[in-house]
Amino acid sequence: ERFDELSKTTPFLLNLKPSGQYLMEDFYYAGGVPALMGRIESILDLDNITVTGKTLGENIAGHLVHNEDIIRPMSNPLDPEGGLAVLYGNIAPTGAVIKPTAASPDLMVHKGKAIVFEDHDDLGNRIDDPDLEVSPDDILVMKNSGPIGGPGIPEWGFLPIPKKILATGVRDMVRLSDARMSGTAFGTVVVHVTPESAGGGPLSAIRDGDMIELDVPNRKLNLLVTDEELAERLNAHKNRAPDFKRGYKWLHAQHILQADKGCDFDFLRAESLQSD
Fold first, then answer.
1. Which residue from 35, 111, 139, 150 could staple onto 174, CB 3.0 to 4.6 Å apart?
2. Which tens digits make up the pLDDT trace of 119-158?
3. Across-strand partners of 214?
4. Which residues are catalytic?
5. How many CB atoms lie within 10 A of CB 72?
6. CB-based contacts of 197: which residues, under 8 Å, 6+ apart?
7. Would you call the peptide bond into 217 cis, given omega within 30 degrees of 0 as the criterion?
8. Where are the alpha helices (DSSP H) in the chain?
9. Which pLDDT score, from 0 to 100, does residue 5 have?
10. E runs forming strands in 72-219
11. In this predicted structure, what is the pLDDT of residue 272?
12. To which CATH superfamily is domain 85-236 assigned?
């Protein structure tokens, strides 16, 4: 919720791929991170001490913007809101994340049929199968790729578009998983779905042909089945959590937190957060 609140109130100023036009090298020569932070200094706590031993304000003082099309002023943002949105609904009761600035505007509100892959191996085996029944309006769903199921919430969230769909000229589809993805990836991709599938989260209950509704402006992500149907599916579902008996893998599976809690070990959290 805090990330979503900050994104709603922080304008999108950096014209950098995948959310903009320019490359990282262009950003560097335009002034880089210090210049960008200077643009938003009015909403920063400049008195914070950083790893340099200086305050944040001291670190960014005097850094100029050399290209205002790459690093926009607050008065002329690429978008009045930032680059992240947190979605909620019966698929993601505790949240999921999308990058609206790197997604297709025409897919920000979308309803489509689920094409379900049980895990990353299933995706790899079937995504380019010419007999896969899939259309551009469908929603690709991958399960069992989160902190426990991956394990380690791998960068698998940028699901490939089926070759036969790419061949028609389509370059984006709605994609959904409990994995993560690179910050450089473009597309209407929902990641970090929590609770994850392997632990019995609602993502595990999605079936081929189910209708899913994505509504980014209203921060909603829902499976269009009744509450009773969803509950029945979850009660009948067998979790895919790995059954490790000892060692680090056991420790990880038993104590790793979900994406909305930071994917940290529960015993490493600050005492003030233990009951959260």
1. 139
2. 999 999 999 999 999 999 999 999 999 999 999 999 999 9
3. 110, 221
4. 182
5. 21
6. 143, 144, 145, 146, 149, 178, 203, 204, 240
7. no
8. 2-9, 24-30, 32-39, 56-60, 120-126, 163-166, 227-236, 247-255
9. 92
10. 85-87, 96-98, 109-117, 139-142, 174-177, 189-191, 211-215
11. 64
12. IlvD/EDD C-terminal domain-like (3.50.30.80)
Q: What is d(CA 132, CA 170) in angstroms, rounded to the nearest whole number?
A: 16
Average pLDDT of each block of 10 consecutive residues along the chain (276 residues)?
91 95 97 97 96 97 97 95 95 97 96 98 97 98 96 95 97 98 93 96 97 98 98 90 89 94 91 66
Neighbours of 177 (CB within 10 A): 32
The tokens for 113 are: 């049929």
Alpha carbon of 189 to those of 33, 39, 98: distances in Å? 26, 29, 6
Q: Report residue 168 as tokens.
A: 């028609």
* Degrees, nearest 5: CA angle 52-56-61: 100
- Token reading at 150: 């991956």
In 3-state terms, what secondary structure has residue 38?
helix
Question: Domain limits of the chain?
Answer: 2-60, 85-236
**pLDDT value of residue 241:** 79
**Nearest-angstrom CA–CA distance, 83 and 185:** 13
Q: Under 8 Å CB-to-CB from 92, ≥6 apart: which residues?
A: 193, 194, 202, 203, 221
Q: Which of 82, 252, 103, 78 is CA-nearest to residue 191?
A: 103
DSSP letter for 71, please.
B
CA distance 96 to 193: 4
